[in-house]
Write a structure and sequence with these properties.
Elements lengths: L5 H21 L8 H8 L4 E5 L21 E5 L5 E8 L13 E7 L10 E7 L10 E8 L2 E8 L4
Antiparallel strand pairs: 1-2, 3-4, 4-5, 6-7
């Protein structure tokens, strides 16, 4: 059931922002193959690398296309509706920085890229107060944390 109370909405936004800060502290921004993804996030877009030679989606970002070995990509924004692929509730500490946020939901969102070779899925972390159902539409929420913009996903219609 979506939250509608003003206090609940403010609490959800604060929880999400706090989790985004933890995620941002773990991101390797200096990894060149993913630079186009993070540039897109700064502009509040989800982008995927398309090989300039064969036209295939090259996900997970890498130095060379897994199909034709080209090293030339164009990053294109997606226009799809992400859907919840899978999730679980994390009850025990695995990542020290998330210890104080237990329990939390962790999962994968399928961003709906139509490609014969790959399914593009992005991970997420959410407070357990969100109502999650496999296959539900998810909305990307971009949270600026220092020099990085972190893409988080929330159920569509739930703040």
């Amino acid at each position: 059931m979506p939250r509608t109370d003003t206090a609940d909405l403010a609490s959800a936004e604060n929880e999400l922002a706090t989790l985004a800060e933890v995620v941002a502290s773990e991101i390797a921004l200096d990894w060149t193959p993913a630079a186009g993804f993070w540039e897109g996030c700064r502009e509040h877009e989800l982008r995927v690398p398309i090989c300039n030679e064969c036209g295939r989606v090259a996900w997970y970002p890498r130095v060379a296309c897994g199909h034709c070995l080209s090293e030339h990509f164009t990053w294109e924004a997606t226009d799809s509706s992400p859907r919840l692929y899978t999730w679980t509730t994390v009850m025990f500490q695995f990542i020290e920085a998330l210890k104080e946020h237990l329990p939390y939901a962790s999962g994968l969102v399928d961003i709906g890229i139509d490609s014969p070779d790959v399914n593009v899925r992005l991970s997420f972390i959410l407070p357990t107060s969100y109502q999650l159902v496999i296959g539900m539409e998810m909305t990307p929420v971009f949270i600026d944390v220092g020099q990085v913009t972190v893409p988080m996903f929330v159920p569509t219609g739930q703040p």
